[in-house]
Design goal:
Layout: H1 2-5, H2 20-31, H3 37-44, H4 49-61, H5 88-126
Helix pairs in contact: 2-4, 3-4
């Protein structure tokens, strides 16, 4: 790999990301052109050929579609914002939905607090 890409390929301070188009091109080299996984991995500068094996496996499992992996934690849906020309009925409906959302969020936090407290009590009893 050093002969092909130089010493820059050894720098691993940042995760390299590949677009859907790049992944599909690389996978097609293996599947359609019958090139070996190892040679394609070296040629494309992948960290390991295991990465390419995983891409191919996921590609076949998803019916030959590449699915982008989402990063980060899932977030709660945002509360709807007030519109400029909102009628009274729309305002009431929006506020009712917002109130329902906040009540559900409060109930969730209460139940979570109870569960956490129960676990702490259980751990203290074991000691």
């Amino acid at each position: 790999m050093i002969d092909k890409h130089g010493y820059d390929v050894l720098k691993t301070n940042k995760n390299r990301t590949f677009s859907v188009i790049e992944k599909e091109r690389i996978i097609n080299r293996v599947i359609l052109d019958n090139e070996s996984v190892c040679s394609v991995a070296i040629d494309e500068g992948l960290i390991s050929n295991g990465m390419l094996f995983n891409w191919i496996k996921e590609y076949k499992e998803n019916c030959y579609n590449i699915v982008e992996r989402k990063w980060g934690r899932p977030t709660m849906p945002k509360v709807t914002k007030k519109k400029e020309n909102e009628t009274k009925d729309e305002t009431i409906k929006r506020l009712q939905e917002e109130n329902l959302y906040l009540k559900a969020e409060l109930e969730y936090s209460k139940k979570l607090r109870v569960v956490v407290q129960a676990r702490k009590n259980q751990l203290q009893k074991k000691k």
